[in-house]
Amino acid sequence: MSGTLGGRLRAARATAFVGRGEELAVFNAALNGGGCGVLYVHGPGGIGKSALLRRFAHEAAVAGRPVSTVDGRMLEPSAAAFEAEAGPVLRDPDAVLLVDAFERIQGLEGWLRERFLPRMPLGALTVIAGRCPPDLRWRADPGWAAALEVLPLGDLRAEDAQALLDSCGVPAESREPLPAFAGGHPLALLLGAAVAVKDGGAGRRWTPDQDVVATLLDQLVGEPPSAAHRHALDICAHAHTTTEGLLRAALPEDAGPLFRWLRRLPFVESSSLGLHPHDLVRKVLEADLRWRDPDGYAVMHDRVHTHLAERVRTASDADVPGAVAALLYLNRGDGAPADFPGRPDEGEFQEEAARQEDLGTLLRVATAAGGAASAACAAFWARRLPEAFRLYRRTETGEPVAFSAWLRPAEPDEQELAADPVVAAAWAHARATTPLRSGEHLAVGRLWTLPTYQGDSQVTALIRWRLIGDCLRAERMAWSYIAIQGPGHTWVAPLRRYGMRDLAERPRLGDEPYTLFAHDWRAVPAQAWLARMNRRLAQGPGDGPRAATAELAVPSEAEFAEAVRKALRLLPRPGALAASPLTRTRLVAERAGQDPATALGDLLRRAIDALREDPRAVKFHRALSVTFLSGTPTQELAAERLGLPFTTYRRHLTAGVERVCADLWHRELYGTGAPASRSA
Question: Which residues form the Orc1-like AAA ATPase domain (predicted)?
């Protein structure tokens, strides 16, 4: 160490330098004449580009090579200024030129490529480091193909991140939360280390304070050009992936220019699904907006959630897992384990419809997953409902690793119940709880996965997204059941988090017990389920989705008709309708935002009024109107007002009540947008 402050700083930086072995190997190869003449290092702010250049300078000095450094932060962005600073290297074949913060002088890239660097003597080495990747014209030029090496600089490996924390003297109890926040990002690790060392008692409670967040924002993101650009950044950080369509739905501003701006940012990556930021950028932007503008955060979240929920409903079948993943990703902040084991662009596994010729593969996978009984059950359903099966392969090799099935048995069938105890248990539970009504069905989700992939992997997540999508898109489904092998499966926590209840009964296939996760989609329809998941994110985990709102009633047709008859008698007293069980039915719940008793009264009046549109039912309408809408105290007086014999009046009234019951029951089953039934 020299006797200067600069020497001490250099020594401290050298001690803190960890990792980057691959980059150093490339540099040393070039330094020794075995590589290219220009290295282009790029990565987001704080990723360690300057530290790497300092290490390059040290390696060059050890090799006896003269080093010149150009710092874009200190240089006027002009060709003349650059040449005045770096010109001497043009005369020395041993020179090493290091250009840092190149994003500050990015406008010189074309001049550097076409004018300056071609004048470098053979043997000289240039390293350019900046946030932005090189212009594609470098790679499109055959002359640069062998002369240029591009080095994207990413996060430190886990062991290198720990070594960096060791060098900073971070207490052992703080080693876990720091990398959980910072990943392998060097600047975030160093900032967090400084806080953890200062507050040695923070331990596992460590979280980044606002000073750390603000510093990282400045270094990673900088100042966006406008409030609209910042809003677009916040959406990009919040969503799993961002498309122009998502921006258009969540932003009042023109989405096109903002999307093009996002995709050019050095910390934003593109994939087949859209744009996604560096993990640390995502965390920092999210933390800042939640702290800075919680109301704005909630508004943004609701807009994104609404758009993605609609996309689940309208997506093509092949796009359903991705649409569900994007929607569920919004719930990552609820303290639950991560449901996203891979990056958005990895696509390690692919899903396809199973074909007849895949039966042998299904048997092999099912045998490995659950034994001979499991394979026999899978084969039974594959022959009976082949369209229910999907196959999952490794994208790279095509290796089959899993199957899933969405079984919709039409009714309890003795052969099916005998062949599959799991489906038999589902039917038994449905019959004993709230049986299916006319036109309704139940579904049972099954999966068979090779043991190697049965933990938290991308393929299990992909299957889970598919099954949740099947639930949310189903029409007239009463119950869904998802069967998993064993009580301690990694799916238990996610399915409970999604508000699905594991049944006490454990059906067995051979020696293997299965757990059934059940959900009544009449009690909590898809829209209500989505609202609960969304509300849970805003309010915290609490007692799970089930605690967010009361479940809907699921009456039989006879129970429903009796409740309608009682409610009609209460119409003159609207306040009394609040106690009607109809206020907890789907019929009323779909009129969101309205008081249930008021909504029920409106529905009854509309059902009566609708009878006027049918010439055959006008007489029914008159009987109902006089009896229930005009406040007539007795039926005898109602018959007198209508000028009808009492027996004729009673016949019209009874038929009218039956029509209203039938029309409202039809809407309860099929939704309030469905045309009314015309059966009396």
Answer: 17-82
